[in-house]
Amino acid sequence: MPDQFLSQFDHFPDFVWDGLLAGVAIVLGLLLKWVLSLVLRKKPADGKPAWSVTRSILSRLGKPFSYFLPLLTLNFLLPLMKVRASVYPALNKTVEILLAVSFANVLIGLVKVFEDYVYHSFDINKADNLKERKIRTQLQFIRRLAISVIIILTACVILLSFNNLRKLGAGLLTGVGVGGIIIGFAAQKSLGNLLAGFQIAFTQPIRIDDVLVVEGEWGRVEEITLTYVVLNIWDQRRLILPINYFVEKPFQNWTRNTADIMGTVFLYLDYTVPLDALRKEFTRLLEINPLWDKRVNVLQVTNTSERTIEVRALMSASSSGNAFDLRCDIREGLIKYVQVHFPESFPVTRAIVEGGPVKTN
């Protein structure tokens, strides 16, 4: 029966028959993709957009399947084409290569679907997000590594499908030792960065959204790649550092175990300032400020000079950002308090005039 059906098209020119099969392959592939998307597509019960695995699959795999499924169908229909014997091997090889590339693109899409799932399950937009930041830091490194491995393996599959390249590879096998040494010396910094990336991903001296002080700059870790780290500075600049910097050099991590932090305010006042009244006002300012986490409340004289005393107000907050704003509020409040109630307690210069008026005849 199939032979009788195909015999009806024998009078068609070869190029028309081949074009028809190619068109059928494209239509069947897109039709199959449409059916799959129709099966997966679901609307949330409340009608509002919501994240789901099916939505992620449709978003990440929609375009890759638009190429992969028609190529897969074309690969099955290729033996039915009336291509010249001299052209068929080249056409078959081209389809195989394109199929391998499109399949690699599908695998990369699956990696991104997994990434979307983890991002949804471990949301960092909450106060206590230490676990989420750990997972996301590892995920970024694993995602880039997985995509790199997929690309490298795809390239290897394509190259090894050519017999000539296999022979070339066998001929170069004897030079692998020397070549490996040369490449190792030439790329030792890159390899060092890669190994540092492994170390950071799993020992985690830094994580995504950690607050760091590096090279005198305060900022949050915005991105960790295989070779460098991007730090989002407080004034929206970006500090980019090689990833091995965080293995070889010291830096401050303000959120290593917890985001809780203490802040200080220093005032330089005259010896006459009433410390008990100042301490009560400091406590009052903390209690009315929502940024204070009620852990630390200390006001002490920490140093003296010939003209002033150094008063340190120590307080605590739930994060470095809150601590900065809290310090500014408390500093301003204490200065206003001294201005209104004890203006004579600001630093002054005293002079003692000895002797009386000079009498003249």
- What's the number of structural domains? 3
Strand order of the largest sheet: 4-3-2-1-5
Largest pleated sheet? 5 strands, antiparallel
Mean pLDDT level: 76
List segments where confidence is low: pLDDT < 50 over at least 5 consecutive residues.
Answer: 44-48, 168-179
How much helix is in the residues?
55-70%
Shape: elongated
H/E element order: HHHHHHHHEEEEHEEHEEH
Radius of gyration: 35 Å
- Give me the count of strands: 8
Kindly report how far apart the N and C termini lie. 147 Å
Overall SS class = alpha+beta
List key phrases describing it.
361 residues, alpha+beta, SH3 type barrels, Alpha-Beta Plaits, five-stranded antiparallel beta sheet, three-stranded antiparallel beta sheet, 11 helices, 55% helix, 16% strand
Quick overview of this protein structure:
Helices cover 55% and strands 16% of the residues. The chain is built from eleven helices and eight strands.
Describe the secondary-structure layout.
Layout: H1 2-7, H2 14-40, H3 53-77, H4 88-121, H5 130-160, H6 163-172, H7 176-186, H8 188-203, E1 211-214, E2 217-224, E3 228-233, E4 238-242, H9 245-248, E5 252-253, E6 261-269, H10 275-287, E7 292-304, E8 309-317, H11 320-341
Would you mind describing this structure in some detail?
With 361 residues, this protein is an alpha+beta fold. The protein has 3 domains: 2-121, no CATH class; 141-153 and 162-257, SH3 type barrels (Roll), CATH 2.30.30.60; 261-345, Alpha-Beta Plaits (2-Layer Sandwich), CATH 3.30.70. It is built from 11 helices and 8 strands. The strands form 2 sheets. A 5-stranded antiparallel sheet has the order 4-3-2-1-5. Strands 6-8-7 form a 3-stranded antiparallel sheet, with helices on one face. A hairpin with a 4-residue loop joins strand 7 (292-304) and strand 8. Helix 4 (88-121) runs antiparallel to helix 5 (130-160) and helix 10 crosses helix 11 (320-341). The termini are far apart. The model is unreliable at 44-48 and 168-179 (pLDDT under 50).
